[in-house]
Amino acid sequence: MNIIEFRDFYRSELQKTNKESDYIFKILLQEICNIDPLKIALDPNFIVKPENEMLLRSSLKNILRNYPLDYIINKKSFFGYDFYVDENVLIPRPETEELVQWVIDDNNNGDKKKLIDLGTGSGCIGISISKTINLDVTLADISKEALHVCNINKDILESNVKIIEYDLNTEFTRNQFFDIIISNPPYLDYSKKDEIDENVNFEPHIALFAPEDNPLHFYKQILFFANKNLNKGGQIYLEINPDFIKEFNSLLTEFKPNDVNFRLDFRGKKRLAKLSF
């Protein structure tokens, strides 16, 4: 099958617009077959080799079952960097880039502050910050598999972050204190699990869903962590669930930050928070 025939096969199977189908096909050509998509226009009779045909067909089957394209190619662009991702970590979202930018804007003054990224997943938050401004960055996660992905990204992007295993539900026993805490913890409402996009179900639920009976559990644990390990004058930057703003504000009355600021994400939802202590 030549490259044009394969493109048309994708178009017929995916039942999307030609533009959407062609985008997926070109990404797969480039990323899993190492074939320049320009061949579609410049060499339309180019024959796809059997081994690449097998890869393209198996990828198509995955896409048809709503498996995320980012997992197929093991790559997601975030804050201008290409991160390795697989089923062990959440796929980075553009809303989180806005949280990263907030930290950078507030701390781009040359001071070598200490930052910890709690529940780091792929490491995209902490690594992006470490590549942009001069902070001492630590990545922490409960998942050994996620930390393996972190180490891959640390090596790929030549970052100097530190990586530690830590469960937010336990006491932090290291004698370390931080100026900045940042986190995008699990916050989706489990009772609404059936309403989310099908492809999201392939992502690790441990990184997506808060406990059904306590949707603010991880925020409370982060605040407990801050009570003991955040330096005076420190800040916490959080991605939050816009559906639980009222409950989040009630939680803050228990911990009494000096200042609370919210920002809207690019969709106009109150999803970002900064707490100053």
Instruction: Tell me the fraction of residues in β-strands, as a range.
Output: 15-25%
List low-confidence stretches: none
Number of domains as seen in the coordinates? 2
| Name of the CATH architecture of the largest domain | 3-Layer(aba) Sandwich
Q: Can you tell me the CATH superfamily of the largest domain?
A: Vaccinia Virus protein VP39
Q: What would you report as the Rg, rounded to the nearest angstrom?
A: 21 Å
Distance between the termini: 63 Å
Instruction: Give the helix tally.
Output: 11
Say how many strands there are.
9
Helical/strand content category: alpha/beta
Task: Describe it.
- With 277 residues, the protein is an alpha/beta fold.
- The chain folds into two domains: 3-65; 76-276, 3-Layer(aba) Sandwich (Rossmann fold).
- It is 42% helix and 18% strand.
- A seven-stranded mixed β-sheet has the order 5-4-3-6-7-9-8, with helices on both faces. A two-stranded antiparallel ribbon has the order 1-2.
- Strand 4 (136-141), helix 8 and strand 5 form a beta-alpha-beta unit.
- Helix 1 (3-14) crosses helix 2 (18-32), helix 2 (18-32) crosses helix 4 and helix 6 packs parallel to helix 7 (124-132).
- The longest helix is centred in the N-terminal third of the chain and has 15 residues, at 18-32.
- It is elongated and about 65 Å long.
- The mean pLDDT is 96.
